[in-house]
Write a structure and sequence with these properties.
- With 186 residues, the protein is α+β, with helices and mostly antiparallel strands.
- The protein has a domain at 64-185: Nuclear Transport Factor 2, Chain: A.
- The chain has helices at residues 2-44, 49-59, 64-78, 94-100, 107-117; strands at 118-121, 124-127, 143-148, 151-160, 164-175, 178-185.
- The strands form two sheets. It has a four-stranded antiparallel sheet with strand order 3-4-5-6. Strands 1-2 form a two-stranded antiparallel ribbon.
- Strand 5 and strand 6 form a beta hairpin.
- Helix 4 (94-100) crosses helix 5 (107-117).
- The longest helix has 43 residues, at 2-44.
- 12% of the residues are buried.
- This is DUF3993 domain-containing protein.
């Protein structure tokens, strides 16, 4: 019986020793991988200047979040609060409403929407009750074409119950550090 206990104890000691060496070996492999990763980072910082410029120019393009925020703000501004007679509550003229779009869109882009959806009567602004236009859908895929570092066009194909299949193209231009819509086509 003593022999059996001794053999089991020695076997357990060998087993634990084997496990400890395996963990040490794995730890050594992990440390080696960390050293390789640090080495890659150090080498990456030695990229030539043309590659660094490319990385910087990609970071300066309009982001999905900016596109979605500008498109949402455009639609929020277009859809105005009205009273029982469809009189716009916040604005009395087309011109003052157009000026509200100034931070996000060029006047030439906004004017056709304002002319179609709004009407001035007796120094008051009224909305023509109708559906909103076929528009950008934030959660749907779209193509983004970088025309230059200050000009990007997005194209999105959508389907709606009201409009059926449609495509919207929106041109964004960066001026004085601000992205604006400079063209919308359907």
């Amino acid at each position: 019986m003593k022999k059996l206990i001794t053999i089991l104890t020695i076997g357990l000691l060998f087993g634990f020793t084997f496990i400890i060496f395996q963990q040490t070996d794995t730890s050594h492999v992990l440390k080696t991988e960390k050293v390789k990763a640090v080495h890659k980072q150090t080498n990456a910082s030695n990229l030539d200047s043309s590659k660094i410029t490319i990385l910087e120019s990609n970071e300066s393009t309009i982001t999905h979040e900016e596109i979605a925020a500008i498109m949402d703000k455009f639609m929020e501004t277009l859809v105005q609060e009205v009273d029982d007679q469809y009189r716009v509550v916040q604005f009395d003229s087309k011109e003052t409403l157009i000026s509200e779009f100034e931070p996000i869109a060029a006047k030439e882009v906004v004017q056709p929407y304002i002319d179609y959806y709004f009407e001035e009567k007796d120094n008051k602004l009224y909305i023509n009750p109708t559906e909103t236009p076929a528009w950008f859908v934030e959660d749907n895929e779209y193509n983004k074409k970088e025309i230059s570092d200050k000009k990007v066009e997005i194209t999105q194909a959508n389907v709606s119950d009201l409009y059926g299949p449609y495509t919207i193209k929106v041109l964004f231009e960066k001026n004085e550090g601000q992205w604006k819509i400079t063209n919308i086509s359907h």
